[in-house]
Specification:
The chain is of the alpha+beta class. The protein has one domain: Thiol Ester Dehydrase, Chain A. The chain has 3 helices and 7 strands. It has helices spanning 30-46, 50-55, 130-146, and strands spanning 7-14, 58-59, 62-69, 78-87, 92-100, 106-114, 117-118. A 5-stranded antiparallel beta sheet has the order 1-4-5-6-3. It has a two-stranded antiparallel sheet with strand order 2-7. A hairpin with a 4-residue loop joins β4 and β5. It starts with 6 loop residues before the first strand and ends with a helix.
Length: 147
């Protein structure tokens, strides 16, 4: 299992007021929303986002989510959320880091796992659909060509 991803993307988020609690720290449930934004950026980079997944006949539900909080994010803070693809052959596993954009201080570490499910039959796939694996392989080849 890879710890570092071969393909990664990041987004910057400024913590809005409606994401914080009464002491101006981000409520723990909102971190999942930040991960989703970085995951969408990563899938766009692959050229196989959620619209393409649906069009290919598969949904990709999250089946596992782990969050490790190191420090709280606060109202107005600029965050960098990094998503790195670490597994794709049998499932979609993504590692995340949420950092303070100004200092690079790690605030949160996370991992999600998703599996392909046929939209038509509702059956979980034991291997990632070829259309998704091919999208990852194309991106890896493009990255190698520019390295």
């Amino acid at each position: 299992m890879r710890k570092r991803g071969l393909i990664g993307a990041e987004v910057e988020i400024r913590v809005p007021f409606f994401d914080v609690d009464s002491i101006h720290v981000v409520w723990h449930g909102h971190y999942v929303k930040y991960l989703e934004q970085a995951r969408c950026e990563l899938l766009d980079l692959l050229g196989h986002n959620y619209d393409a997944m649906r069009a290919s006949g598969y949904a990709w539900p999250v089946i596992d989510l782990h969050l490790r909080y190191a420090q709280p994010a606060q109202f107005g803070q600029r965050l960098t959320v990094r998503a790195e693809l670490v597994e794709w052959e049998n499932r979609l596993k993504i590692n995340y880091l949420i950092l303070d954009s100004a200092t690079g201080t790690r605030l949160t570490r996370a991992t999600t796992e998703q599996v392909a499910v046929s939209i038509e039959t509702r059956e979980m796939q034991l291997a990632s659909p070829a259309v998704f694996v091919e999208a990852v392989e194309r991106k890896l080849q493009a990255l190698e060509a520019t390295a």
